[in-house]
Amino acid sequence: MASYRRAGNLPGEPRIICVTKTQPLERIAEAVEAGVTEIGENYVQEAIRKDVFSLRQGRDLTVHYIGRMQSNKYNTMLHLFDAIDSSDENLLKHACARSLAVPVHTHEFLLEINAGEEPQKAGLTLARVQELAAERWEGFAAISGFMTVVPLQASTNMRAALYDDVRALMRELVEKHGYSQLRELSMGTSDDFELALEHGATMIRVGTAIFGARGTDCL
């Protein structure tokens, strides 16, 4: 993608996470057959009900969890999902403790960042992440990057600035604190993924641009 190349110093090609919430299994299967290799679900129970995990059979398919954290579902999530992109402090603490006793299926964790500091949204603020870095929080060793959602009402310039802030924060953790494994930035959705790519995203979350508006024909 041209937007990705303009960002510079980024590895390979961007990863496209096909957001499949509310989509029936048949439409998701069509997308996978068409070439989708990574899908993202927002709700644990919906993913189980649809059995999106069955699509991994015989395929190189990664299933991400990108929704809100619920502590009573931690063990289920760690058992089913390949990646958890909306990880928080408590989930990572639980995952580290559980893996000492029982292997977990999840092999990739992204820490969710609330870049716009919206009180109604989950995720850590930039300042909180910097505090944890100063404290040498052990959770950083388990993550491979950040995921962020910017305010829906934010202007293009504001979104760009927030994406830059998250990218700069990750660079700070790599260069100043030595967390060299941090490489993934999940930023941008169907309406602004090109902007996100220009500002450092290595992963984008796309649903509408693949399936169309809800209720319309897929692919």
Structure description:
The chain is built from 9 helices and 8 strands. It has 219 residues and is α/β, with parallel strands linked by helices. It has one domain: Alanine racemase (TIM Barrel, Alpha-Beta Barrel), CATH 3.20.20.10. It has an 8-stranded parallel sheet with strand order 7-6-5-4-3-2-1-8. Strand 4 (83-87), helix 5 and strand 5 (108-113) form a beta-alpha-beta unit. Helix 6 (126-134) packs parallel to helix 7. The longest helix has 20 residues, at 156-175. Mean pLDDT is 90; it is low at 215-219.
Short structural summary:
With 219 residues, the chain is α/β, with parallel strands linked by helices.
Keywords:
219 residues, alpha/beta, TIM Barrel, 8-stranded parallel beta sheet, 9 helices, 8 strands, disordered C terminus
